[in-house]
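Long-time lurker. I teach an intro course on protein structure, and each term I like to show students one example going from raw sequence to a predicted 3D structure in token notation. This year I'd like something fresh instead of my usual example. Would anyone be willing to generate the tokens for the chain below so I can use it in lecture? Attribution to the forum is fine with me.
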Amino acid sequence: MNRRIAIVSLSAAVLLGLAGCTLPSTNGAATSSEPSSTASTTSSADGQSVEDACALIQDTIAEATDEFGKAATEDPAQVVEAMKSAADKLTDAASQVTNEDVAALLPDLQEMFAKTAETMQGIVDGDVSKLEDLTSLGDEFQDTSQRFQELCAPE
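-- Reply from a regular --
Happy to contribute to a lecture. Here you go:
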């Protein structure tokens, strides 16, 4: 029962962290009518803007959030698989990001999802020592999400 409580707690923390990474829809009218001057003018050699690169990663994270949200109410093993899937999807999306500013954030985002999957797998397997990792994971989610938002949705 303690493992299930830990999974639910970690799931809630992860969902909050993921919510921090998902910004208002990049396809919505509000975002497209108010592009950030930084996001629209900063581009890499091939011309990919911060806005375009952020949209790609944001869409990937939003998809992972949906998948994770569905799994979070089910079997803890599904939560682990959703996190692994999110890490894999970020890796795939990273190959499409050519903007240097956004590309610099991707290793931290990928590591965050991979560490979360590893910690959750440990808890599912009964490794209570992984419970100690929950606080640092929550801090990592918050820090990484904040850096993503600062770049992708500057005020």
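Some talking points for your students: The first helix runs from residue 2 to 21. The CA atoms of residues 3 and 123 lie 6 Å apart.
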